[in-house]
């Protein structure tokens, strides 16, 4: 006999299920001896109430009845007359049985068996036994059909099955947990993003029309939030285990945002939800910079997700050098590094655009000045900020585009600029606002004979654009491939943005576009649609195939960068990898432990983060690796990363940071003019095995210094005044006295006479 306990009755009643239906179903079940016949009747009679079917299934299992075994067989054809919803009920019940069996395997420590069972349950819900997990396409049709709409599109309410959706989320999260137990972090991250993918697909098909990614979306179910909390906590666990504190902080941020969405009455009503909330530790989650200078261990524990590297600062020869700047254009040609344009910061009047151009001989390390970029001929004012142009080199010519059909070309042989007019494809208007009077914060790349331009701010909405253009450098004719100016959200396409990363992979015949931001704060100040107090950092990566002209949303895989904008990137032919460094996120929380806020129990936080981490992208596997370094240039954004096409060496130049976030003794904004070389322990990475012997105590960690004696990290440590040239630092006179003998014997340092 199947009975309903008081606890079950109360739970069903509180969740709004029809108690009379439940009791009628169970009465029918208890009065019939044939289990299969009974199960069919229950499903047919109550096909419109999935929650009831779910409750009956749990009651059957709890009773010890063998009736649940009917789920292993196909139901008769007549059930199809009730349509997709009715057909989904027996699928759901079968999947729940499989899930319970898989959970039993998980409890016994058989995690591979549990994974297979959970995946089978997902296939059962989706109605296709041939599905391979994790899925390859981001916009996966079976996930989209969970929230599938009727033929009238957005005017018709969706045929949304929340129970199916929640079960899919639970199964994906369970598979993620199983891979964590197996120490399989590549697979764990795959399933972390499979969970996010299910959320995104159902959101896409249930909101009223295409909505920008920052549009809130949630379900009024406590189980929905419980699953999200648990999954984000597992994401934090995975990335912290890999030393990727920035990515871990992203999922911590998701936890905090979700917690702010749930009202306190709901938290109090559901003890399980409240218990998960108690696991939240914002004081621990957001205490780190990225990288964190106090984390000394830099060994590769997961070779498929980590690799060793070092940054070496390049010392310039005496003489003139370019002033510090952000968002400069850089390239290397025949052993010379070129730096052009960008923006600098001055206390008065503030940001100032630069038109100067410099060349650094990488052998002699001496700078020389070249002719200025002719920005006034391209419709820009001298000293106007945000002049970069993302210049690109092809053969011996450099191309500078600033938003107008006219472009500037620099001849690297004669070292002269020329102005060249271009045209649009016949019958197509110039797509940028105001005829391209101002375009900034866009991305460029060259593949074959085409210069590609994506995104940027053209002053239409201040949010950004998703305009994608190609200039044929042989014919000087533009093609408008996709996108528009203004706040228009494509259904399955890449959204408007500024400052994304963009690189070309010739072997794949693809361009990749990653992250970036919608400048919601600019729109807010301009009283425009889409405005908000903080910008929105995107969490997606896209590829464009230049032969078939199709955009594809790629799945994030591996030890990937946290969400950000203004990061530096380059493609390395020697490594056959893309490299990303640094960047900025205006809504990523960081604890501020430098100030005393009295008796407040709440820690003070920066509502933004700057990054100084280095990551590699393999286009063949789509897997990211985190480069583990002993030291790094600094936390900075809008720096310039460039690869020498001849010897494969990778350099980073310039950038900026906020001196409140990164302590310094010079103003609010600091711009850099330094140059660093990256070495990576892999073929083509210019690695020197002796780099492994370098003393971590002498490495620069942005603005931080390590005490030679106690390894404590700080800003104001005193450097050694001996003959070592100030290579080592001490945090106090006591540490200097304690460590002097070792320092003298190890490094031959002596007091200066």
UniProtKB/TrEMBL annotation:
Domain of life from the UniProt record: Eukaryota
Q: Which UniProt keywords apply?
A: Kelch repeat, Repeat
InterPro entries the record matches? Kelch-typ_b-propeller
PANTHER family (alphabetical) = ACYL-COA-BINDING DOMAIN-CONTAINING PROTEIN 5 (PTHR46093), FIBRONECTIN TYPE-III DOMAIN-CONTAINING PROTEIN (PTHR46093:SF18)
Q: What is this protein called?
A: Uncharacterized protein
